Amino acid sequence: MEIILNADDFGMTHEANLGIKTAMEKGYCSQTSIVTNTNYFDEAAEMAYKYHFSEKVGLHINLFEGTPLTGGMKKLKKYARSDMFDYRPGIFRKIPVDTDIIGEELEAQILKYKKAGFTLMNIDSHHCTFYDIPVLFALLPLLKKHKFYSVRYIGNSYFNGSVRREIYGQYWKKKMNQMHLRHVNYSSSIATYRKNQKKKNPRLIKEKRAEVYVHPFMTGNYLYDNYTGGSKLEESLRKAGLHKKKLITSRQL
């Protein structure tokens, strides 16, 4: 099985930037995705070019943390408080409202990504933001307009046995498929990947390619994965057998 091993949250914090730079240098991850609306974006961009992995940087759209790039987004109480993201869509979670304002924010993040010179044109989202209908409807035309090549598909853990989730998950897939974006059918964290390995879950086992996402950060001289409760990244990769897999980027799909 070939694996896209993506380091999420590049640009989120200084510690994340150091962790992802180290993970890319050591070959633990095959690509990363950057957050554009934080104080650490410029540092992340500089690192990507300095350490020669700028061609492996995708976009991590974010409506959860930091400051919106657009004024309209700051006025949406479902998304922001005191000029900072505070994502609480509530009942609007399943209603495609405010897509014009959301679209302006998403496009501002896309343009900042492209202005930095990144070319991977792979897109994913912080805390699965683009699963929500308002965000999905705002994003779809932008994916075509800005010629994105690939997307992180809806995560395996989304399908938890709920009929409602199964129906909506298939709808989400249909809308994304209409964009003709390259993707793998399976994506998850390391912990979920290991769980599905042990269970021999057909959603994973039948696939020739999969995506696993990690959240590296550095503390002192130690490299951890923030998404596994602070486990050391190399140890987590070894326990999952991912250190033996062939790593690819979304460009190779």
From TrEMBL:
<protein>
    <submittedName>
        <fullName>ChbG/HpnK family deacetylase</fullName>
    </submittedName>
</protein>
<dbReference type="GO" id="GO:0016787">
    <property type="term" value="F:hydrolase activity"/>
</dbReference>
<dbReference type="Pfam" id="PF04794">
    <property type="entry name" value="YdjC"/>
</dbReference>
<dbReference type="InterPro" id="IPR011330">
    <property type="entry name" value="Glyco_hydro/deAcase_b/a-brl"/>
</dbReference>
<dbReference type="GO" id="GO:0005975">
    <property type="term" value="P:carbohydrate metabolic process"/>
</dbReference>
<dbReference type="GO" id="GO:0046872">
    <property type="term" value="F:metal ion binding"/>
</dbReference>
<keyword id="KW-0479">Metal-binding</keyword>
<keyword id="KW-0460">Magnesium</keyword>
<dbReference type="GO" id="GO:0019213">
    <property type="term" value="F:deacetylase activity"/>
</dbReference>
<keyword id="KW-0119">Carbohydrate metabolism</keyword>
<dbReference type="InterPro" id="IPR006879">
    <property type="entry name" value="YdjC-like"/>
</dbReference>
<keyword id="KW-0378">Hydrolase</keyword>
